[in-house]
């Protein structure tokens, strides 16, 4: 991030809080219009402002450094130290604040790292250091415009300065400095104007093609698109330069500051923004210099009265601002808050989009960070892991994060890059993950998998330091937040059946379907028959008195009544079948198996019997009197 204090050309005060690389980004988030809250005007900030490792914003004054917490309360300070006023302040790779003053750097500890609070810079006389920024090599770099010098200081407290004299770049005044997406240092230079790159071998290359005539580049910063952006101090213009040195200019506002914002835009003085596509949005907010705070909002200083303001960007529906130290102890392992939960409630419908934001990310070697998001339904995704591998950083020892606000939303998976504040797709180089229980060992997918799920419940963030590189610990100083978009209404229940109109009787229920077991046999409509045997054609009365036994064989089971009429004839009598009479003939069936008979061939007996034949016997009572 960059903040600037205007000054005469001979001593231009400037600030850069180095962004870090983003080769490509997700589209900028469409946040609501920012609103400004201004805190006491007696702060007397002298211009620069930055986010510190302690989660506060720091700014220099005429007498020292002061801090504001997220509520805008002045909460800490470093008193007057020789070398004040301090012109610029930035968060260093080692977690300390670094400020530039007269012939020295101030480096008060915000971490228990070893180091000296004040570092003298030789070879610059009594000139002022006006721009300070984290470099790509774990050092802090600075510019001394009035002496045409630039240099760096190590965390151990050794400072080295270089002169522009004798370099390949033409004479001029180096003003501002930033680390580019290629891992190299980039400067703005005035009188004459150009953009200067420090190559891996230490040589300087100057780029002028594409600049407006008479341009005087001033502020500079890495954009979330991986390009370097700058302002023109001589006109209301801003420019973009690619790693290959191609310059494109855009209409903007005259600005002494430029910084990558949490919303994926470039921010300029007054809160104006410029998208990575060159779309300019003017504003007039009380902010001449700018910084990203650990709360995920923009902060600024109004130079006319030294007042500090917070520019709220909206969003962040749900948040857990509790600091997350990474790791909890030592140089590797899980974070101090593991997991960090956010309870989501009150949303209706199902998820359509999730944006997770890490606020105030500090880490001396960001490639060690691994971050996983787990939703209420158990879905999990890696937001970043080995995200800043150094394969494309020609002279990088380690890549640090110094307070960036980094948002992740769906849009594929990004390759490793240097990271600045902005909005990105998840960044995962595919190396082994080191998450500990209760985190899932393997993520279940990307952020898009949350679409269609229930938003309410507990979302968890798991953070680990995977490598254990000495002195490379850090923190997510401002915690994290979630923005969740939903369908907006709960899924409707199935509609009930329409009621039956009162004047229409309800239809009768349908008859139950017949139970069919096997194949149904055709119905037998043949009337039953009886066969009577054993009736003598002639018999004597004496024999009849003893009883007459006949056999009645029905064609199927029946109940029957039969009579036998006896007619006397000369010389005897005869018996025959006759019409029904009151005397009953009760059958007592005797079942005889016919298995293996004709009934076994077609599954039924002749005349409709199953596999049984019933043989009833009837005893005929004595005949009636003639």
From TrEMBL:
Instruction: Report the source organism.
Output: Svornostia abyssi
Q: Where is the composition biased (Low complexity)?
A: 573-597, 606-617
Gene3D superfamilies listed in its UniProt record: Galactose-binding domain-like, YVTN repeat-like/Quinoprotein amine dehydrogenase
User: Keywords for this entry?
Assistant: Hydrolase, Protease, Signal
Q: Does the keyword Signal apply?
A: yes
Q: What is this protein called?
A: P/Homo B domain-containing protein
Q: Where is this region: Disordered?
A: 483-533, 569-626
Domain P/Homo B as annotated: residue spans = 313-490
Which residues are the signal sequence here? 1-31
- Ranges of biased composition (kind: Pro residues): 490-514
Extract the SUPFAM superfamilies matched here. Answer: Calcium-dependent phosphotriesterase (SSF63829)
Please name the taxonomic classification of the source: Bacteria, Bacillati, Actinomycetota, Thermoleophilia, Solirubrobacterales
């Amino acid at each position: 991030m960059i903040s600037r204090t205007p000054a005469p050309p001979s001593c231009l005060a400037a600030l850069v809080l180095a962004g870090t690389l983003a080769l490509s980004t997700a589209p900028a988030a469409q946040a609501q219009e920012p609103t400004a809250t201004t805190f006491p005007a007696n702060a007397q900030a002298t211009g620069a402002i930055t986010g510190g490792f302690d989660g506060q914003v720091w700014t220099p004054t005429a007498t020292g450094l002061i801090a504001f917490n997220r509520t805008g309360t002045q909460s800490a300070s470093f008193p007057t130290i020789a070398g004040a006023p301090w012109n610029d302040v930035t968060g260093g790779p080692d977690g300390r604040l670094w400020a530039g003053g007269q012939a020295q750097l101030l480096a008060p500890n915000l971490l228990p790292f070893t180091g000296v609070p004040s570092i003298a810079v030789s070879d610059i006389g009594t000139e002022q250091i006006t721009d300070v920024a984290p470099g790509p090599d774990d050092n802090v770099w600075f510019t001394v415009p009035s002496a045409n010098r630039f240099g760096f200081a190590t965390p151990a407290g050794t400072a080295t300065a270089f002169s522009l004299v004798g370099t390949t770049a033409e004479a001029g005044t180096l003003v501002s400095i930033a680390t580019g997406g290629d891992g190299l240092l980039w400067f703005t230079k005035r009188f004459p104007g150009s953009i200067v790159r420090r190559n891996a071998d230490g040589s300087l290359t100057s780029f002028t093609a594409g600049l407006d005539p008479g341009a005087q580049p001033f502020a500079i910063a890495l954009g979330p698109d991986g390009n370097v952006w700058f302002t023109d101090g001589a006109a209301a213009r801003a420019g973009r330069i690619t790693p290959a040195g191609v310059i494109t200019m855009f209409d903007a506002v005259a600005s002494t500051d430029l910084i990558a914002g949490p919303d994926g835009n470039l921010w300029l003085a007054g809160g104006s923004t410029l998208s990575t596509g060159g779309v300019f949005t003017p504003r007039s907010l009380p902010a001449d210099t700018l910084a990203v705070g650990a709360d995920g909002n923009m902060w600024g200083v109004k130079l006319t009265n030294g007042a500090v303001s917070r520019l709220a960007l909206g969003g962040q529906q749900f948040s857990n601002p509790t600091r997350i130290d990474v790791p909890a102890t030592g140089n590797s392992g899980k974070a101090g808050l593991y997991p960090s939960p956010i309870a989501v409630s009150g949303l209706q419908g199902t998820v359509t989009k999730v944006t997770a934001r890490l606020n105030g990310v500090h880490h001396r070697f960001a490639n060690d960070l691994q971050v996983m998001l787990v939703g209420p339904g158990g879905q999990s995704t890696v937001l970043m892991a080995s995200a800043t591998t150094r394969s494309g950083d020609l002279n990088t020892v380690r890549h640090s994060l110094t307070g960036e606000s980094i948002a992740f939303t769906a849009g594929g998976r990004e390759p490793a890059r240097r990271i600045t504040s902005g909005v990105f797709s998840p960044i995962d180089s595919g190396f082994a993950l080191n998450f500990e229980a209760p985190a899932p060992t393997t993520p279940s997918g990307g952020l898009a998998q949350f679409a269609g799920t229930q938003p309410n419940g507990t979302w968890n963030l798991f953070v680990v330091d995977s490598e254990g590189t000495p002195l490379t610990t850090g923190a997510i100083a401002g915690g994290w937040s979630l923005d969740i978009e939903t369908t907006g209404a709960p899924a409707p229940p199935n509609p009930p059946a329409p009621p039956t109109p009162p004047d229409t009787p309800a239809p009768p229920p349908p008859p139950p379907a017949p139970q069919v077991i096997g194949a149904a046999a055709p119905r037998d409509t043949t009337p039953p028959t009886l066969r009577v045997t054993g009736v003598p054609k002639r018999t004597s009365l004496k024999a009849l008195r003893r009883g007459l036994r006949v056999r009645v064989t029905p064609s199927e089971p029946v109940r029957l009544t039969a009579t036998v009429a006896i007619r006397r004839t000369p010389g005897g009598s005869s018996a025959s079948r006759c019409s029904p009479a009151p005397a009953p003939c009760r059958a007592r069936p005797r079942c005889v198996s016919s298995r293996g008979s004709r009934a076994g061939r077609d599954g039924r007996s002749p005349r409709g019997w199953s596999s049984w034949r019933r043989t009833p016997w009837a005893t005929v009572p004595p005949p009636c009197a003639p």
